[in-house]
Amino acid sequence: MRFIIGCKPGEHPEKDKSVGIVGAGPAGLYAAGYLKCKGYKVTIYDQMPEPGGFMIFGVLEIHIDKEKVRRGIKELKELGVVFKQNTRVGRDILLGDIINVHDAVLIATGTWKSRRLKIPGSDLPEVLPATEWIVDYHLWKYGYSSEKPMIKPRVLVVGGGLTAVDAVYVSKWLGAEEVYVSYRRTREYAPAGVRGFKEMEEQGATVYELTVPVEYIGENGHLVEVKLEKLKLVQEPGKRPKPVGTGEYFTLKVDMVLEAIGLIPTPPFNGGDYGIKLRDDGTIDVDEYKRTTREPVFAAGDVSHGASLIGPAAKSGLDAAKAIEAYLEGRLGWRTS
Ligand SMILES: Cc1cc2nc3c(=O)[nH]c(=O)nc-3n(C[C@H](O)[C@H](O)[C@H](O)COP(=O)(O)OP(=O)(O)OC[C@H]3O[C@@H](n4cnc5c(N)ncnc54)[C@H](O)[C@@H]3O)c2cc1C
């Protein structure tokens, strides 16, 4: 995987301006490749022990060639991009300090928090956010942590996206005997699509479409059962059909739940700090040039447009890099609103 697009290394002389990038996922890496190749000094700050973002710690090896990702990162390092790993911005270093030392800053910190169901029993120790659990799995698999993620014989995965599909695979690989999936619509409307559901079933998962957990039932402080409600779809003009409750319920005996119902943007600062505005959905407010409400801070990737895929995040990072180049060359001013 090459992160250098639209420029040949060595084509441009080195410049004395520097760009700080927060986040080493596809958005940050493609931006780094472009800007470094154009001669700028580039430093990437990233919280994980290894760069790559969800390409390394989220997506499974069966869906992406991680050695290709690592080769692309090696090429960036050889070109002179500085990687500061194990550096959580907001905790180990403040965003303000990064703004102070660079001529432009790009925030590309993705969506590293799972949305959660708020139902009785959500606080039981065996009810976990799927994405964080998959990140823990990769930390353990690549030797960055000695702690094997929790696994129980009977697992319920909640959701119908790519994370749900991956949660089914990892549950099976770690030794779960029975895996169930609850999804509130039918597979035709699921983000993972009919193909994703076929994959889950091929792994031996039993899929319950048109259902939603309404209560996690515990005994002596541990999960023993999940109560689910059956749903039906109500057509709404011009929209995806809406799932509504039928008042019919059933229970499943499971001892672990992985919730994969969506991801929340994770900017490296509290909303409103540094004069950087967030939208109501938590994404960073950017204009068509990826400019935030604070000069000279740009934002790209999932943290600016919500959870997506590698391709759109990469394109967003590249677009931001081109805007940063125009800004540093004085061809682009700052937004006025
Ligand atoms: C389980 C799972 C499976 C997926 N499967 C696929 C798939 O099969 N195909 C596909 O195209 N897409 C898939 N995706 C989605 C895809 O990986 C993302 O859309 C994409 O990686 C987003 O890129 P990004 O650069 O915006 O952010 P990310 O890749 O999320 O990278 C953000 C980076 O910012 C860093 N960071 C976050 N906060 C801080 C902070 N405070 N300080 C410092 N660093 C910070 C993180 O460590 C990370 O390196 C999957 C996602 C998940 C979670």
How would you describe this protein?
- The chain is α/β, with parallel strands linked by helices.
- The protein folds into two domains: 18-111 and 265-328, 3-Layer(bba) Sandwich (FAD/NAD(P)-binding domain); 114-259, FAD/NAD(P)-binding domain (3-Layer(bba) Sandwich).
- 28% of the residues lie in helices and 23% in strands.
- The chain is built from nine helices and 15 strands.
- The chain has helices at 26-37, 54-57, 66-79, 95-101, 130-141, 162-173, 193-202, 302-305, 310-328; strands at 18-22, 41-45, 82-84, 104-107, 113-114, 127-129, 154-158, 178-183, 206-209, 211-219, 222-234, 242-252, 256-259, 263-264, 297-299.
- Strands 3-2-1-4-15 form a five-stranded parallel sheet, with helices on both faces. A five-stranded parallel sheet has the order 6-13-7-8-9. It has a three-stranded antiparallel sheet with strand order 10-11-12, with no helix packed on it.
- β7 (154-158), α6 (162-173) and β8 form a beta-alpha-beta unit.
- α1 (26-37) packs parallel to α9, α5 crosses α6 and α6 (162-173) packs parallel to α7 (193-202).
- The mean pLDDT is 96.
Descriptive keywords:
FAD/NAD(P)-binding domain; elongated; 9 helices; 5-stranded parallel sheet; single chain; 337 residues; 28% helix; alpha/beta; 2 domains; binds flavin-adenine dinucleotide
